[in-house]
Amino acid sequence: MADGVENQAKQALTNMGHILKEAGGSYEHVVKTTILLNDINDFANVNNVFIYSGWWIIRTRCQDNHSP
Prior knowledge:
- The chain is an alpha+beta fold.
- It has two helices and two strands.
- It is globular.
- The mean pLDDT is 80.
């Protein structure tokens, strides 16, 4: 797993892109994403990754205190 929340968000977007491409889709076909964060204070950093990637999409975020 990549170090840092920004690098993890970039990797997640890359992985989603590969999955979408394999299924014959693209980011343009995505309407909404859900982001689970261990620390809600990381949202601004993750949100910046989405913005700078040019991916303007509805993002739902919530803090997950139960994940390892």
